[in-house]
Amino acid sequence: MQIHLLSVNILTANRERKEGMFQTIIGAISSFMYSKLLVILLIGAGVYFTIRTRFPQVRLFKNACGSVMEKPEDKGAISSFQALMVSTASRVGTGNIVGVSSAICIGGFGSVFWMWVIALLGASSSFVESTLAQLYKIKGKDSFIGGPAYYMRKGLKQPWMGALFAVLITITFGFAFNSVQSNTLCAAFEGAFGFDHAVVGGIITALTLTIIFGGVQRIAKVSSIIVPIMALGYIALALIIVLLNIKELPGVLALIVGHAFGWEQALGGGVGMALMQGIKRGLFSNEAGMGSAPNVAATAHVSHPVKQGLIQTLGVFTDTLIICTCTAFIILFSGAPLDGSTNGVQLTQHALTNEIGPLGAIFVAVALFFFAFSSILGNYYYGEANVRYLTHRKWVLNIYRILVGGMVMFGAVATLDLAWSLADVTMGLMALCNLIAISLLGKYAFRLLEDYRAQKAPVSKTPFHQEPPERGRKRHRVLVITNLFRTFAAGTAG
Fold it and tell me: Among 231, 306, 426, 451, which residue carries the largest CB count within 10 Å?
């Protein structure tokens, strides 16, 4: 008996040691990718695209806002607004509450400033990838489909790269991230109401399956309702807190900017920490350049591909410049401790409790429900779009939907440290594939932007779908790129 117990103990110890080694290896890979490689590449891409496109996220902001409400020609098609809501649903998640509070605790006030900067730069990467998604989209059974896998196959002529990306994003968003969203949501409800994880997880799983089995149209309709409600409610509360502390606003803004550049922080290494935390929070919250948002950007029916590219920059701004900033102001105005004694969702709950009383913790739990649930729907669709890339078999898609529901339930009751680490690695590899693709194909997005600007000029009254008159070499380029878009956007499966 003793020998048997000794053998069991040895086997258990060996298994734990192997798991620990695997966790260490995955952690080291993740740390390298997110502290150096991806940060450098994403910032570099953002700066390059911003300069090359001449700041469309700022110069054409009014055009982006005007294009949001453009109605599709086909009844029942996915509108620009619906596509924006689905992508925003994925972007705006628990990270907007949990991640921002962690960034402030680690990097201080200055991290908020660098979060703003990276959102402005990253918006150009989002513009390029979403414009390319429109260019290379194809006609599906119920709607247009497209994304990085499609422009890797059709634009780069690298179907293996598209297949790799499709597998990575399906695992990362469809399974791993949805488990994490579910886990965070259940933890918030347990803290606020004492609800059991399994009960909350069961409800979320049932709601998820009900919606995703309705296809992209149902996801778009639900997202177009949930996202505005959750965003406006959270923004309204943040504005109330700002107004209640309006006299302190100049001081808080001065601290944010001062800690981002201050000599005292520089000598103590605080500037570097603020810079890294702000960059990481901005990049990985708004997903600009990561290759996720283009999957839904491709579904929209628009009169010009650049319009959807511009619209998706609004999603970046909504996520980082508005929602993340709301969380930052709630924390900074509250006087909540930033010494690490409380962190994550508990810090935000503590901050709101200081401002509005016991209802603060309840409000955070409710906000997290909407944030997390909308993210689950958006994440699911990213996976669905790429399952459709890999196969057109209906039964495979149905199995995927069931597995997503299973992972939502699993995330509600399990600890997810290893799953989170693996998801970081797969998302990093996914982002690398996308950055390579949009860097090589970016020239087509630039030409489409030239075409859009030419048509918006006062001398040009020609709509996009018509052939412009040939007036010199510039008009010839416009004609070429117009025909290029018409070839792909018409739905050729190529």
Answer: 306
Q: Shortest CA distance to 290 belongs to which of 371, 177, 396?
A: 177
Please state, in angstroms and rounded to a whole number, the distance separating the CA atoms of residues 200 and 398: 24
Closest CA to 412 of 96, 193, 200, 170: 200
d(CA 385, CA 365): 30
Q: At what angle do helices 394-413 and 197-212 cross, to 10 degrees?
A: 160
* Residue in the structure block whose two tokens are 């590899």: 429
Q: Are 327 and 99 in contact (CB under 8 A)?
A: no
Rounded Cα distance between 308 and 320, Å, is 19
| Partners of residue 137 on adjacent β-strands | none
Query: What pTM value is reported for the model?
Result: 0.77
Q: Would you report the helix, strand and coil content of the chain in percent, each value rounded to 5?
A: 80, 0, 20
Task: Report the topology of domain 2-441.
Answer: Amino acid/polyamine transporter I (1.20.1740)
Length of the chain: 494
Mean pLDDT to the nearest integer, 436-450 = 92
Q: Please list the alpha-helical segments (H only) found in 262-321.
A: 263-267, 270-286, 294-297, 305-316
Whether 219 and 90 have beta carbons less than 8 Å apart is answered as no
pLDDT for position 405: 86
Cα separation, 303 vs 358, whole angstroms: 49
> DSSP letter string over 224-257?
HHHHHHHHHHHHHHHHHHHHHTGGGHHHHHHHHH
Instruction: Find the largest Cα–Cα distance for the chain.
Output: 92
What is the per-residue DSSP string for 314-342?
A: HHHIIIIIIIIHHHHHHHHHHT---SSSS
**H or E element that contains 198:** helix 197-212
Closest to 446 measured CA to CA, from 43, 87, 50, 41: 50
Q: CA–CA separation, 230 vs 285, rounded Å?
A: 17
197-230, pLDDT tens digit by residue? 788 888 888 888 888 888 777 877 777 787 777 7
Q: Please report the pLDDT score of residue 484 as a whole number.
A: 52
* Amino acid at residue number 309: G
Cβ(428)–Cβ(36) below 8 Å: no
Q: 139: which strand partners?
A: 144
- The two three-digit tokens of residue 78, written as one number: 């996915």
C-alpha span between 143 and 384 (Å, rounded): 13
Residue whose C-alpha is closest to residue 201's, from 221, 170, 179, 229: 179
**449 close to 56: Cβ distance less than 8 angstroms:** yes
